[in-house]
């Protein structure tokens, strides 16, 4: 019974902590991330007067064979405009240890995407994420990117400074 009470109090404490996260969603990958597999997120309606910081969230295991990751991220606006970025993020230090947070085999990487963004257009925004990994010296991309367990996206209200 004491364990149950401790678990309840811990959960209550975590929920009561203030967080500026307004959206967070992860998609589990099926053992690998396919080259033609685009992960899409539909954003909630956000206050057009507020500014937000946007993050990409990648979970990896030791099966991930690279020290970096290339991503193609497209923000699709409600009225048809699309902004596409090709991004590179470091995933490991020079000594080979992972940069992500976590104990054990899975590391979580919270990667900056954009900061102080405002969502002025009314309607549904979507965000598409695909990987663009290649082996050195090869033209063809990696068809099955092993070691990525989850791909996510989160939005936090920007804090005033």
Question: What is the CA-based Rg, rounded?
Answer: 18 Å
Sequence of secondary-structure elements: HEEEEEEEEEE
Number of strands: 10
Shape: globular
Question: Can you count the helices?
Answer: 1
Describe the structure.
This protein is mainly beta. The chain has one domain (20-157): Sandwich (Jelly Rolls). The chain contains one helix and ten strands; from the N terminus they run αββββββββββ. The model is unreliable at 5-16 (pLDDT under 50).
In short, what is this structure?
The chain has 161 residues and is mainly β. The protein is built from 1 helix and 10 strands, in the order H-E-E-E-E-E-E-E-E-E-E.
Keyword list:
mainly beta; 10 strands; 9% helix; four-stranded antiparallel sheet; 161 residues; Jelly Rolls
Layout of secondary structure:
Layout: H1 2-16, E1 21-28, E2 32-34, E3 39-42, E4 52-60, E5 68-76, E6 82-90, E7 107-117, E8 126-131, E9 144-146, E10 148-157
Antiparallel strand pairs: 1-10, 2-9, 3-8, 4-7, 4-10, 5-6, 5-8
